[in-house]
Amino acid sequence: MADKELTFWDHLDELRRVLFRVLGVWFVLAVGYFIAMPWLFDNVVLAPCHNDFIFYDVLRYVGKVFDLHDDFFTQDFHVKLININLAAPFFIHMSTAFWMSVVTATPYIFFEIWKFISPALYPNERRGVKKALCIGTVMFFLGVLLGYFMVYPLTLRFLSTYQLSAAIENQISLNSYIDNFMMLVLCMGLAFELPLVTWLLSLLGLVHKSFLRKYRRHALVIIVIVAAIITPTGDPFTLTVVSVPLYLLYELSILMIKDKKTDADETDEDKEE
């Protein structure tokens, strides 16, 4: 593509090949996840339901080290799901395999996007787009991992043991569990895109470093509110483990972007040109 000028139809033909490759990779992953789903469901998706989940071990270790006897750090935790919909297991099997394949295929999709658009970009634009795609991919997966290993287990422990009345027994349905699992894990993945979004907004001139520094305290309040919504628990520990990563992302956003150019800076650039 870089050696000669391509026509409109050449670009469409190249786009068609890209789409076929992406769909092929996605289909292979989806079939693989569908076949492996019974094992993945027991050992990955349902892992936060069992007392031996790694994050619960961490909580018990923290409680032992600091001599904390609260139920939050010492309780044995088990959740048993029920199914009240005849077709739910089959459709959840398919949808979970689909979403897992989409998430894991994301790096390859970004790679194909990069290969397709890079010949049309200037060198400085290539560096910016490549940086954005790499950072976006890494941050998304970091958010997904944090959501899976920390945020969702905390939320599950709180909501599954919360009682409005002693006369009401909590029975969690399979559909409810999967809906909350997917929502929280993907929300954390998207939340970790904050530095990338901020960087792109700075390129458009909508935000700048001094603006983010000026409203740092306001951002902290908003982050705590968002953390309370994502994990509706009442204890300070839960709010802390969610708020701290989000606030660090805010500080990372400040480091990633440049400050607004002053009139003097613009005059100096004009003179150099």
UniProtKB/TrEMBL annotation:
The chain crosses the membrane at residues 18-41, 90-111, 132-151, 181-207, 219-250. The lineage of its organism: Bacteria, Pseudomonadati, Bacteroidota, Bacteroidia, Bacteroidales. Part of the twin-arginine translocation (Tat) system that transports large folded proteins containing a characteristic twin-arginine motif in their signal peptide across membranes. It comes from the Bacteria. One of its GO terms (biological process) is intracellular protein transmembrane transport. NCBIfam families: tatC. GO terms for cellular component: TAT protein transport complex. It holds the Pfam family TatC. Forms a complex with TatA. It is found in: Cell membrane; Membrane. PANTHER family: SEC-INDEPENDENT PROTEIN TRANSLOCASE PROTEIN TATC, SEC-INDEPENDENT PROTEIN TRANSLOCASE PROTEIN TATC, CHLOROPLASTIC-RELATED. The keyword Membrane applies. GO terms for molecular function: proton motive force dependent protein transmembrane transporter activity. Signal peptide: none annotated. It is a multi-pass membrane protein. This is Sec-independent protein translocase protein TatC. Keywords: Cell membrane, Membrane, Protein transport, Translocation, Transmembrane, Transmembrane helix, Transport. Its main location: membrane. Belongs to the TatC family.
